[in-house]
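As a representative case, the lines below give one protein's residues and fold tokens.
***
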Amino acid sequence: MKNEASSSNSREDSVVVDCGRRRSSCGYCKSSGRTSISHGLWAHSITVNDYQDLLDCGWRRSGCFLYKPEMERTCCPSYTIRLKASDFVPSKDQLRVYRRMNRFLDGTLEVRNPIDLGDNPNTSTRTGSLSNHKVSSSAGTFFHCNNQESKAEEVIHNLSNQIDKVVHTYIGNGELTSGIQLPKAAVKKVSNAKRKLSVEGSEDLLYSSNIAFQIAATLRRTQSAEDTQQLQMSHSADENDRSPKSIAEKLTCSLKQLANISGFSIRACNGHINFYSTAKNVSSDADVQNFTLHKELGSGSKSSCANKSSEHPQVQKMKLELRLKRSSFDPEEYALYRRYQMKVHNDTPDRVTESSYRRFLVDTPLLFVSPSSDGMVPPCGFGSFHQQYIIDGKLVAVGVIDILPGCLSSKYLFWDPDYAFLSLGKYSALQEIDWVKENQSYSSGLQYYYMGYYIHSCSKMRYKAAYYPSELLCPLRYQWVSFHKARPLLDKKKYVILSNFASLQDVESSKSCVLESVMELQHNDIGLEDTNDVHMDDEEMVEIESESSDDELEPETSGLASAAINDGDLSDVLVGLRGSRLRYKELQRAFGSTEMNYLETQLRSYQRVVGVGLSERMVYSLG
């Protein structure tokens, strides 16, 4: 029989120590006893593939400590929750978070308590493409939106007039039926959020009009029954000419010929008349002052917008930069984390130490995988990362994430309490979902966004299910079950074997449950936004709290029933001993019966909680 002995400390291996059952006080239900029960592993190193498989069996990590709730025993069962990024449907509240951030960056969001971004002592230590813009101290960081809105309204007014003049020209030429009252053109500004959700190539879409639909509807209403019958009997050409798409194309063509509109390109799109910026990187309303209508139709005079463009000073925009860096200690991040914990979570200074921060959010057992060009690994690679959110050189938030072959796993987020009004927890979640979508082209298997644990009995955790459509992991068979099917079950009982009931749900009742669930979750989400808005894993903070003397480890077998694994063959369990790794069957000759009985008991417990496959891949370290 071939010996597989090799170094168990190799950075190619997952090397773990089984810590056994772990009891601690619960940070969710605030029970007085040690009612939170989980199984723990200490990971010296772990491959991203092995950790992905552990996530899909209900495990999470806090630093290098891996833990899994004993679902049928613990006071607050924690279900792994995830979302397929390509299926994500943002709610109105989530879209408002996008808009609020854009208005803040534009300088058009009015906030009661101004913040001086320019006084950040750490700004000078940053290099790269950071913006050096500072906000005027006389006006504070935030500006009233009246000036900017008036400029946008002026542009909208002039664009509407141009369309109306083209419509009247059509009537005068007999191309449209005369003697009927056509609606006035309405041009609307397209929000940044809608541009972000639109098809590729529409990033520079600023304004749009649906006048063609209104004209087509008016023409249909004024047609007599006789005219309609004759039209149907003749040919569909006239009908097509009166369709919104055809009308929009004609009006667009005339606008290009008759109206001298500078700063815009005009295109018809499925019945809409769209006005696109000819400038690059248009991202906000602040750019409207760069677009002027140099001629009224049939006139050589300048528009009023052009004449007034210099009456008010330009609103100064801010720059948001996202930086993704591999997990490492950063003094600026630690200072932000310390401030966040003390102000948001009311931690005392002695509990927010550098060592606890390192153990919690910096240390990682994940083995980094370098990027590749084979469609398997994204440009950043796989491993543990910190996503920094920087506004005009100031660090305002840090998202701690793991990027794995199948998902982006969100671990924790901490942010500057002065920026609570921006709902940075929600904003970072939306950014992370977008990141998964954008990087699927680099890594085909990267499809999901993992939000940590979902605890139905904890109201502060329910916001996670508002990222629709999410699904929960069945604690017995490790199958994924739609949240809207799981929710009625969790309303009745904390611990549920979800896969037992998922297939029995009535389709129609499930649909009504979806609407009810989403509406309630969005309501709850809004209610929590201004008070906590903590993203994502509150349980990670519980992990730190339970590192106190209140913690209790039980290295004996846990006897987890939830693993749904019968006592299997231990022969191929991989064991690390004195710098070598061997299969259990190779160790049987080296130990006596008493020692082997004890080891076998430990290995069976370990195999139950990690599964047969992982027990044969990860190294069970004996020292």
